[in-house]
Write a structure and sequence with these properties.
The chain has helices spanning 15-26, 48-59, 74-88, 111-139, 150-153, 160-180, 207-216, 225-232, 271-282, 292-295, and strands spanning 6-9, 30-34, 63-67, 93-96, 142-147, 185-193, 243-247, 250-253. It has 301 residues and is of the alpha/beta class. The protein has one domain: Rossmann fold. An eight-stranded mixed β-sheet has the order 3-2-1-4-5-6-7-8, with helices on both faces. It is globular, with a radius of gyration of 21 Å. It starts with 5 loop residues before the first strand and ends in a 6-residue tail after the last helix.
Length: 301
């Protein structure tokens, strides 16, 4: 499905990004494997993870090159795109997967913790997408696949920085889809569920907890890759501006904000009439303070 195509996958030295890069290559894509090699919190750098994935791709006859630039710097993001153009002569797909975590309850979160996560996730997706956009426009084709999260789409504890970035990515993707549709460029989001070191601290003290974790471990990063490849390929041409989620063997199309109820007052509103009329009338349609796990309540299938 990706024969003759060139793809960039950021944060591809491990986890979801690695499996997407491998799947792209198996479908015929030439792949730029980007990874800074930093820790989960974004600290340190190591060229090894990106090169290891390149070696895996080459071992089964695929073509790939490593890149260790940071997505959080615009000049470095341009170098990621130039790596594709200089190595393979073109660029057809960008998967914005790179990310870090700095979880902290909001009232304890520092400016640095908020800024670092926004820089990698939201700015990183913008910088790499913007660097690729000019080339996509010139060739009248291209596909962006961005990683969002149900932490942003729905909510979660202790992740104000991550959630803000991930919901921002949804809006960024929709804007790219609107602005670039006339150039044949598509942009979509995936909210992935996958077992990783980030959720590896779930307790397993009882047999029920152990069974639940065993079921969750079925949600391997490889489960995300088929949708990413399909959206990046020409076969996914019908999809743009959409938000999907993948949970083990399930693929969801996620809703996007739309009006659900309204109230009208011919003479206009005062603070008192808003409090006495508008809010009580709308209250029945208010959303609960749900977390992702409150919405996705069943075990993965």
């Amino acid at each position: 499905m990706m024969e003759g195509r060139v793809a960039i996958v950021t944060g591809a030295g491990g986890g979801i990004g690695r499996d997407i890069a491998l799947a792209m290559a198996r479908e015929g894509a030439k792949v730029v494997v980007n990874d800074l090699g930093a820790s989960m919190t974004g600290e340190g750098a190591d060229a090894g993870p990106a090169q290891q994935v390149v070696n895996e791709i080459r071992a089964f006859g695929g073509e790939a090159v490593a890149n260790t630039d940071s997505v959080a710097d615009p000049a470095a993001a341009n170098r990621i795109v130039m790596t594709a153009l200089e190595s393979f002569g073109r660029l057809d797909a960008v998967v914005n997967n790179a990310g870090i975590l700095r979880d902290r309850f909001f009232h304890k979160m520092s400016v640095e913790e908020f800024d670092a996560v926004i820089k990698v996730h939201l700015y990183g997706s913008y910088f790499v997408s913007r660097a690729a956009a000019t080339h996509f426009k010139e060739q009248n084709s291209g596909s962006f696949v961005h990683m969002t999260s149900t932490s942003g789409l729905i909510g979660n504890y202790g992740q104000a920085n991550y959630a803000a970035a991930k919901l921002g990515i949804m809006a960024l993707s929709k804007s790219i889809a609107l602005d670039m549709q006339k150039f044949g460029v598509r942009s979509n989001c995936i909210a992935p569920f996958a077992w990783s070191r980030m959720i590896g601290s779930i307790p397993t003290e009882t047999e029920a907890e152990k069974a639940r974790v065993d079921r969750m471990k079925q949600m391997t990063p490889a489960k995300i890759a088929p949708l990413a490849v399909a959206l990046a390929s020409d076969a996914g041409a019908m999809a743009t501006g959409q938000v999907f989620a993948v949970r083990n063997n399930e693929i969801f199309l996620m809703s996007q904000p739309r009006p659900i109820r309204s109230v009208h007052r011919g003479e206009g509103w005062t603070p008192e009439s808003v409090a006495n009329h508008a809010l009580p009338a709308l209250q029945g349609s208010f959303y609960a303070l749900d977390r992702s796990s409150d919405v996705f309540t069943w075990d993965p299938v």
